[in-house]
């Protein structure tokens, strides 16, 4: 049974997995980016804020110490030069405090400590430093030293304590920033590890999913296909997995069913062919047996029947010659019937033997010039043409591959038929022509005789088939059957052209030589030659005749020669005229 196609498709599953993994990775990447930005800000705070603040707090303490040292020195010496450290410390204090205030926007607690330092410094300067400077300038060093008391030192210690508190606050802010940096760095590392784990887990899930949904179903499908390929075409193919693979399995199984059905038809056809071959073999054996019988019959006909027929015919003729006129008229008629019947029987047997020998007694195919054959035909039919005052002409005929005796018999039968079936009081004219049609020569025998009705066009080639009585036209009715057998033996076909306006046109085809086909293809643009007519007895064509054509006349003082060429060259029309 074929499983039902349902559930998520492979594409949907893969897209969903990749989407989830992508969303997770994008979220992790966003968190990592935010954490990295935060870590960078914290590092910047350490490097650009708490670090400089710590240094500047130490500079502030040094500036205050310089001020206290300058006040003590001036109180002892009274020399104004000893106030230089005080003035320098005061200037440095102002610049340091200004620089520190620029860095305290993110540290309000440090700013609070800074204000305490400034307040205590201002109070020390107001209660100690300025009175010492004024008293020393006005009353001398003794009066100035008298103001530098233990209380004055305690006030400065308070200033120093405030600076220490400021430094501790800056150090605490720095430690806090460093802790934040470490925390953010750890979080960033954790996020990277989580991203790596997501990638590894997603890859593992994808690999396992592909193994379960793709590889295993494919392996199973391949195994089943191999079973079918080994010859088990009835093995049903069932596939598991995503819907695509199930549909693929169904398509493959449908293909298997189609192949199985075709193979069943092929087997049935092969069985029928084997049966037909067996029948053909039986028929061939029967035909072989029949041919042996026919050969035996031909042998008997050519030997055993000929001798008694000759004897019958000879004695009938002797009776006719010796007793002609001595008996009554009826006896003479009976003897004439016997002589005619014996002679007709001899002709029938000879024609039947000739028909049976076509294609069986072969001399092999050679190149035959049909012009030469027509010369032989003209010689064979000379007596009949003289009797009927017939004219035989032919245009240039090709060279073909065949058996010359059979081709001579073929054309002689056609010419004899054309002379035999002539119209009364009309001199017979027979013309043989040829033209190349594709890979065959189409040869025509055209006459001006009595013609053939279209409904009898196929019957005339049947052996012993006659359209007229033997009294009207003599013969055995086997001539055109011999023509057909000779043509088919040479690989052609024969038919009657019923579209001619006068007489009869029998056409047949013979395979052309390869050289003629190539020459025709090379000269495809050349116009065909036209036959010419010359006066009887002239051997040279007139100046008005088309060039390249010639005809020959045979008179009483000139024998028929088909291979004779006039002085201008025989390339067109051959003509035999008997009058």
Briefly characterize the structure.
By secondary structure, the protein is α+β, with helices and mostly antiparallel strands.
- Low-confidence parts lasting 5 or more residues at pLDDT below 50? 1-5, 527-579
Round the mean pLDDT to the nearest integer and report it.
Answer: 77
What is the beta-strand fraction? 5-15%
Helix fraction by DSSP (H/I, runs of at least 4): 55-70%
Taken in chain order, the helices and strands follow as HHHHHHHHEHHEEHEEHEEHE
Quantity of strands, as a count: 8
Taking the sheet with the most strands, its summary is: 6 strands, mixed
User: Number of DSSP helices?
Assistant: 13
Distance N terminus to C terminus? 94 Å
Supply the helix-strand structural class. alpha+beta
Q: Roughly how many Å is the radius of gyration?
A: 67 Å
Question: How would you name the oligomeric state of the polypeptide chains in this document?
Answer: single chain
Q: What overall form do the CA principal axes indicate?
A: rod-shaped
What order do the strands of the largest sheet run in, or round the barrel if closed? 6-7-5-4-2-8
